[in-house]
Automatic annotation (TrEMBL):
GO terms for molecular function: DNA binding. Keywords: DNA-binding, Phosphoprotein, Transcription, Transcription regulation, Two-component regulatory system. It comes from Pseudodesulfovibrio sediminis. The modification 4-aspartylphosphate is found at residue 55. Residues 6-119 form the Response regulatory domain. The keyword Transcription regulation applies. The lineage of its organism: Bacteria, Pseudomonadati, Thermodesulfobacteriota, Desulfovibrionia, Desulfovibrionales. This is DNA-binding response regulator.
C-alpha cells in the first residue's frame, strides 16, 4: 500500500477519470478528481496532493493555463496529459513547470510508474544535499541552494525553484567548471527508468537562465559547451 498523499486528477473525460481512479486505488492511492481546472488551485490548497495529473486539452480553461496558476502557489509535481505528437504542448508545459508528460491514450500501468518516478525525484530533491559546511546548503559561484526549502539565494534575494530546476541546478553546482553532457544530466536529474523528452534539459536550463538573468553578475553562470552540454561557471 502507498503511504504518499492523495493524487489530484484534472480531466474533462469522465470515463478516463473513472478508469484512473479505479486503477490507482488498487495500489493504495487516494484519488481526487475535477472535471476542469476552475477549482484546481483551491483544491490543491485544501487537500495538499502529492501529485497532480493534468490534461492539456480541456474546454474553457486549458491545462497550460491551469498549470500556470498552480505554479503561483505550489511546487507540487505535475504530470501533463497531452495529445499524441503535440510537441508544442510538451515544451510549453515544461517551460511552465510541468515535471513529466504522457501522451493519450496511455496505459494505466505506465501512469503508475510515472507517478512513482516523479514522487521519488521530488522526495530526493527535498531531502538530499551535498553542500559545503552542512547538508542543508550547497554554495558555488556566489549562489546558495537551500536544500530543505528548495530555494536559491542570489545575493540577498531568495528564489523558489520547481523540483526539476532545483535538481538540475544542484547537479550543475556540484560539478563547478565541469562540462556535463545532456546524457550526464538526464541520468543525474531524472531516474534511469524515466524517458524524458529530448528537449527537457534545454527547456529547464532556459528557465534557470531566465531567473539568473535578473542578476547581472550571475547572468552567464550557466555556460553552453557547444557539442557537449552545459557547465556551471564558478567565476563568471
Amino acid at each position: 500500500m502507498e503511504t504518499t498523499g492523495p493524487i489530484l486528477l484534472i480531466d474533462d473525460d469522465a470515463m478516463l477519470r473513472e478508469l484512473v481512479v479505479e486503477y490507482l486505488e488498487e495500489y493504495g492511492f487516494t484519488v481526487h478528481t475535477l472535471p476542469n481546472g476552475l477549482k484546481a488551485v483551491e483544491t490543491i490548497q485544501s487537500i495538499s496532493p502529492s501529485t497532480v495529473i493534468l490534461d492539456v486539452m480541456m474546454p474553457g480553461k486549458d491545462g497550460l493555463e491551469v498549470l500556470r496558476e498552480i505554479r503561483t502557489v505550489s511546487t507540487v509535481p505535475v504530470i501533463m496529459l497531452t495529445a499524441k505528437g503535440e510537441d508544442t504542448d510538451r515544451i510549453v508545459g515544461l517551460e511552465l513547470g510541468a515535471d513529466d508528460y504522457m501522451a493519450k491514450p496511455f496505459n494505466p500501468r505506465e501512469l503508475l510508474a510515472r507517478i512513482k518516478a516523479v514522487l521519488r525525484r521530488f522526495e530526493t530533491a527535498m531531502h538530499e544535499g551535498t553542500g559545503k559546511a552542512d547538508s542543508t546548503t550547497l554554495s558555488a559561484g556566489g549562489l546558495t541552494l537551500n536544500i530543505p526549502k528548495q530555494t536559491l539565494l542570489v545575493d540577498d534575494t531568495e528564489l523558489e525553484l520547481a523540483p526539476t530546476e532545483f535538481r538540475l541546478l544542484k547537479v550543475l553546482m556540484s560539478n563547478v567548471d565541469k562540462a556535463l553532457t545532456r546524457d550526464n544530466l538526464m541520468d543525474l536529474v531524472w531516474d534511469k527508468d524515466f524517458s524524458a523528452y529530448d528537449r527537457s534539459i534545454d527547456v529547464h536550463i532556459s528557465k534557470l537562465r531566465s531567473q539568473l538573468k535578473l542578476f547581472e553578475k550571475h547572468a552567464k553562470r550557466i555556460k553552453t559547451v557547444w557539442g557537449t552540454g552545459y557547465m556551471f561557471v564558478g567565476e563568471a
